[in-house]
Specification:
569 residues, alpha+beta, 6-stranded antiparallel sheet, 5-stranded antiparallel sheet, 19 strands
Length: 569
């Protein structure tokens, strides 16, 4: 819990506004959109109402008529409790009645194993973790009567029996952030509620499975199995929760879990924009921020990385700021002597070959090249995507994810190659999109490097893709970043391109790019290529998209050279 202190006036006002909206029956969806929610079972976007008394095995989660079920699940995660608890803490205005009223209402309207909120074990686990946080904060509150406590505990027990019974599905079939969340919930409930008959079993199982999943889901270079920055942050928060809970209860996790945690913090910090705290919008991003414990922007990773780094006794890369609050809520406080006075993240060039990321940090810039061979399920066809940050702005960016349950054209666009800063063969993606999250013709052969050469930092990548064509296409990219200057040269070579295919080099600039930067390209004959400005789309938050400019350089032959520079040069 934070040291009692005054919250900045602006932050307090914003927090109070959120709390007032929650009291009015509104819910903040995916850190972006306020929508009134009338009950636990109606999708507020489509008005489809899920049957609350139907067994969860009969609930369809991908129904076009129902729309995206995440709009029903979001409130039932109970992440909004953190706004109420934080407002309570800073204002000394108790929110306990509202907190327990919401929990009781959910219990009353969601019979055990019935309805949409019993479908997904991760959703159940997250709800239980957030209830545990609220029970801990209000453990001495008069509002937590024996009757209410008994009702909540009985529900937690029923929910965790559901998770435990079906954990094998998550471990064998999903093997991702779902598995981590469920393992942490099993461990936490088993440890904190020893009076359940299965508590010892759940505690041991949760700890064992979490250790095994961290060992396999976080690769040796610190990258993450889902190739998603946002899902990687989910793993970071779960690591902080689990490791600290274990330490507080003299039940420390194994050394391998700590080793992988340190590697994963180092990777994310290397890719992080220093000014904004944000990372590239790479991979699937469903808006998940499990424990929103600060007033920082949704995409600012400093709160989560600061908390885990402090727990691991890693050097403080950020100094003091509003991101400190998350660590304090977890009970993690650095000795004052260890705090830096300002943000300092070391510059350099680094390759993360296992996950397929190649990065150069230089003078307020981050340049990241994506190049991955898939041994685990891919989510987006983003090979050789180039992401560039300058002074807090993502000047060349990934378009994002938008929605997992939407029209095929939108799903194809945001997951496909054309929404990334790479090259396509006409309208073809690098792999072939299947239903849901599936792809066929995975990219299996890819490699890259990152190094300094004279006064340049160089990122290189090459992969064999488009294997559904008669001859697979080899795409090689070299990015040269002038050290200390806002200047990039991007060279693309392609082999085995069919004669009837027009190549397209795609760029997705932010809305200030053309005011400050120029981008030009020439082909294999050194002829200037006239770019096309087309409608593009950007999704910073799940469920929302905005139209913007997409720049396309159409070219033939096997080579294109693109120059990106600041206008002052």
């Amino acid at each position: 819990m934070p040291v009692k202190a005054e919250m900045p006036h602006t932050h307090h006002r914003i927090l109070k506004e959120r709390v007032n909206r929650i009291a009015q029956g509104k819910q903040l969806f995916f850190s972006n959109e306020w929508i009134r929610v009338d009950d636990w079972h109606t999708n507020p976007k489509t008005r489809f109402r899920y049957p609350k008394n139907q067994h969860w095995t009969g609930i369809a989660t991908l129904s076009p008529a129902a729309g995206d079920i995440k709009y029903v699940w979001e409130k039932a995660r109970f992440s909004f409790l953190y706004d109420l608890i934080r407002f309570d803490f800073y204002s000394a205005v108790s929110q306990s009645d509202q907190v327990f009223s919401c929990m009781e209402d959910w219990i009353d309207h969601n019979p055990v194993n019935r309805g949409p909120h019993w479908v997904c074990s991760q959703e159940i686990s997250l709800r239980v973790l957030n209830w545990i946080f609220a029970l801990h904060y209000y453990q001495h509150s008069p509002a937590l009567t024996p009757a209410i406590f008994s009702k909540i505990i009985s529900s937690i027990y029923a929910q965790m029996r559901r998770v435990s019974t079906h954990f094998k599905y998550s471990r064998v079939i999903l093997h991702n952030n779902h598995t981590l969340t469920e393992a942490v919930a099993l461990y936490s409930v088993g440890l904190l509620f020893p009076f359940f008959p299965e508590s010892n079993t759940w505690r041991r199982q949760g700890k064992r499975e979490f250790e095994a999943e961290i060992a396999s889901q976080i690769f040796e270079d610190g990258t993450y199995i889902q190739f998603s920055m946002n899902y990687h942050r989910v793993a970071v928060q779960l690591l902080t929760w689990a490791l600290h809970l274990g330490e507080l209860n003299s039940d420390r996790f194994n050394n391998e879990t700590y080793r992988k945690a340190r590697k994963t913090v180092a990777f994310l910090q290397m890719c992080q924009d220093e000014k904004s705290g944000q990372l590239a919008n790479l991979g699937n991003n469903d808006g998940a921020l499990f424990f929103p414990l600060t007033e920082c922007h949704f995409r600012d990773f400093r709160p989560q990385l600061h908390a885990l780094a402090a727990l691991l006794n890693m050097p403080d890369q950020y100094g003091s700021g509003s991101w400190d609050e998350e660590a304090h809520w977890f009970g993690i406080v650095r000795p004052k002597a260890e705090h830096k006075s300002s943000s300092v993240i070391s510059p350099g060039v680094k390759d993360f070959k296992v996950g397929g990321y190649y990065v150069v940090r230089d003078d307020q810039t981050v340049t990241l090249l994506r190049c991955a061979a898939y041994r685990n399920r891919p989510f987006q066809a983003d090979n050789l995507h180039l992401d560039i940050w300058v002074g807090g702005r993502n000047i060349l960016r990934d378009a994002g994810s938008y929605s997992y349950n939407t029209e095929a054209n939108w799903a194809g666009y945001f997951a496909g190659s054309a929404s990334h800063n790479t090259v396509t063969l006409g309208e073809c993606d690098q792999m072939q999109k299947g239903p849901g999250f599936t792809w066929s013709h995975w990219v299996r052969d890819a490699n890259g490097s990152a190094f300094c050469c004279d006064e340049e930092a160089v990122l290189e990548g090459q992969f064999t893709g488009f294997t559904f064509l008669e001859k697979p296409v080899i795409h090689r990219r070299r990015v040269s970043k002038a050290i200390g200057r806002l200047h990039w040269i991007v060279e693309d070579w392609l082999e085995n391109v069919p004669d009837n295919r027009v190549l397209k080099q795609h760029w997705h600039p932010d809305n200030t790019f053309f005011e400050n930067y120029r981008i030009t390209a020439i082909d294999h004959e050194s002829k200037c290529i006239v770019p096309e400005k087309l409608p593009g789309y950007f999704s910073e938050y799940y469920g929302s998209k905005t139209e913007c400019i997409a720049l396309v350089f159409p070219f033939s032959g096997s080579y294109i050279r693109t120059e990106i520079s600041h206008i002052s040069l």
